[in-house]
Design brief:
There is one protein chain. The chain is mostly beta strands. It has a single domain, classed as Ubiquitin-like (UB roll) (Roll), CATH 3.10.20.440. 6% of the residues lie in helices and 31% in strands. The strands form 3 sheets. Strands 4-3-9-7-8 form a 5-stranded mixed β-sheet, with helices on one face. A 3-stranded mixed β-sheet has the order 6-5-10, with no helix packed on it. Strand 3 and strand 4 form a beta hairpin. The longest helix is centred in the middle third of the chain and has 7 residues. 22% of the residues are buried.
Length: 110
């Protein structure tokens, strides 16, 4: 399922030629270079990004501007990354976050 806009009434045909591969919960996913992680996930039909700590309720995009934390996920081993304002990078590993998440060893050492 591809939910991207490919024909626009003003911009015309839109081609996405610069692609990167990311891994979401271990599954390979094609994303567009420069787009936010949340955009890539929504385009692939993924709407649940995390589960709350107390009630394990699913959360996804809410504000879309980096203010609410509903979209946080574990990215390259770092928990609580706001995916609506974080661009994709080649080989990025994105994981659904449960509760507060956990740091993976070596994450952020670069
Ligand atoms: S959707 Fe609110 S911070 Fe990302």
């Amino acid at each position: 399922m591809n939910m991207r806009i490919t024909k626009h009434p003003i911009l015309g045909d839109i081609e996405y030629d610069r692609k990167v591969k990311i891994y979401v919960d271990g599954q390979e996913l094609e994303a567009i270079e420069g787009e936010m992680i949340a955009s890539a996930l929504l385009a692939a039909g993924i709407k649940t990004f995390r589960y709350t700590k107390k009630h394990h309720a699913p959360r996804g995009i809410f504000c879309g501007i980096g203010r609410c934390t509903d979209c946080v996920m574990t990215v390259n081993g770092m928990p609580n990354v706001r995916t609506c304002v974080t661009p994709v990078e080649e080989g990025m590993r994105v994981e659904t976050q449960h509760g507060c998440g956990k740091w993976k060893e070596g994450a952020g050492d670069e």
